[in-house]
UniProtKB/TrEMBL annotation:
Domain of life: Bacteria
Pfam families, alphabetized: DAO (PF01266)
Natural source organism: Kiloniella laminariae
Location of the FAD dependent oxidoreductase domain: 10-401
Gene3D superfamilies (alphabetical): D-Amino Acid Oxidase, subunit A, domain 2, FAD/NAD(P)-binding domain
Coiled-coil regions listed in the entry: none
UniProtKB keywords: Oxidoreductase
Name of the protein in its database record: FAD-binding oxidoreductase
PANTHER family (alphabetical): GLYCINE OXIDASE, SARCOSINE DEHYDROGENASE-RELATED
Length: 420
């Protein structure tokens, strides 16, 4: 007869993006009984359509000292990297206030140190998952180039690069000739650059997510389709969820990894958090006529181009408009217009346009944390631009937390209570 000690721990994960799937697969490796509940088909969320980067070099936070000076110009520029729908401004102001409060050197230094420790195992933590799923061939690790149009643009990022270098990232300055030797498709607008080897990308993030979903199901993970609406509380802790269509799902441990929708769920458990949604856009060009060897970051114009097995994906931009607002695909056209300035032969015809919702925190650090109130609840959300990058690190960390094992980095900067 099985004893309580022998009984498998029942873990329910809300969300099947990259963070939820990595958490689920690491928990299965620990012998847990894992169920994912997701309103959409398994693995069809934001993670499928993004730029695919493992940006282990991205240790510097977005709120840097003096950044606020650039915001008005970005908002007024029709080709700028930032847009805000005025109707959303009243809802956006509390998040913006906390973001601006984080734009100081003391917080930037602390955030970079925390992110450096967190991302130190970004590649290693994917290895067992990719190996088990037969996905090793998807990962390309040749580094990336940050391209600048001018010395002035490069100089404006001096503090960013100094902070990055001081937190253990290898960097190499490139002149125009060296840039074109690495990426011949780039035109003369690519004037100066910075190369880092601490960067990789997946040849197709959709293949990654769907492959991890298959691995989860092959290892007897359970998937239920439904939208979680409420929690049942007994003895001061949640014991089940109720979905909109009436399903009741019991659990011993709960993980909320629902991306941009996570804060709505955490608030129902008493854990309020200032999460907002950076809507990002991209276009995947099947016949780009401009071949890149590696992912390229166009630093002054704030967008990227990623070579994939389905074409060239050109994406970026930040739009604050809330979760429900309809996409503004003119942002995709703007990005292609900018890309043609750097890639003279680029063929922008026949592209597939896409919009995704990045769950973003005011200080750029994700939430990887137990609940304030319930010892059987953990949170894994708010990864912003670094969902793919940190997916496996967060997944392994959540599994460690539930098993009571020590982690590889200090979890305190990532706690859900840090804005209390």
């Amino acid at each position: 007869m099985a004893t309580a000690k022998d009984k498998k721990k029942r873990v329910l994960i809300i969300g099947s993006g990259i963070v939820g799937l990595c958490s689920a697969n690491y928990l299965l490796r620990d012998g847990c009984d894992v169920t994912i509940v997701e309103r959409d088909p398994l693995g069809d969320g934001t993670s499928c359509g993004n730029a695919g980067a493992i940006a282990a070099a991205e240790v510097a936070p977005y709120p840097l000292p003096g950044l606020w000076k650039s915001v008005p110009g970005w908002l007024m520029d029709p080709l700028g990297p930032l847009s805000l729908r005025l109707s959303y401004l009243p809802q956006f102001l509390p998040w913006l206030y906390l973001f601006l409060k984080s734009c100081n050197q003391t917080k930037a230094e602390a955030s970079a140190k925390a992110m450096s420790s967190y991302l130190g195992s970004a590649f290693d933590d994917y290895k067992p998952l990719l190996g088990s799923a037969g996905l090793e061939g998807l990962l390309k690790k040749e580094g990336t180039i940050f391209v600048y149009k001018s010395d002035k643009g490069l100089a404006l990022d001096n503090y960013f690069w100094d902070l990055t270098r001081r937190n253990g990232v290898t960097l190499q300055s490139l002149n125009q000739k060296e840039i074109h030797e690495r990426e011949p498709a780039l035109g003369p607008q690519a004037y100066a650059g910075v190369y880092t080897p601490d960067w990789g990308h997946f040849a197709n993030p959709g293949d990654l997510v769907h492959g991890l979903a298959r691995l989860f199901q092959e290892n007897r993970g359970n998937h239920l389709q439904g939208e979680v609406e409420s929690f049942e509380i007994k003895d001061n802790k949640p014991v089940s969820v109720r979905t909109r269509d009436g399903q009741r799902i019991e659990f011993d441990q709960l993980i909320i990894a629902a991306g941009a929708w996570s804060a709505r769920l955490s608030a129902k458990l008493g854990d309020k958090f200032p999460l907002d949604t950076e809507r990002g856009y991209n276009t995947t060009l099947p016949n780009p006529d401009a071949e890149l060897n590696n992912m390229v970051v166009f630093a002054e114009d704030k967008f990227v181009a990623t070579p994939m097995n389905i074409g060239l994906r050109v994406g970026g931009a930040v739009e604050f408009a809330g979760i429900e607002a309809e996409p503004n695909y003119a942002r995709c056209d703007t990005l292609l217009q900018l890309a043609k300035g750097y890639l003279p032969t680029l063929n922008g015809e026949g592209g597939t346009r896409w919009m995704g919702r990045r769950p973003s925190t005011p200080d750029s650090l994700p939430v990887i944390s137990p609940s304030r109130h319930h010892d059987n609840v953990h949170y894994a959300f708010g990864h912003g631009h670094l969902g793919i990058t940190g997916g496996a690190v967060t997944g392994r960390t959540i599994a460690n937390m539930i098993a009571g094992r020590p982690g590889t980095f200090d979890p305190k900067p990532f706690h859900i209570n840090r804005f209390d």
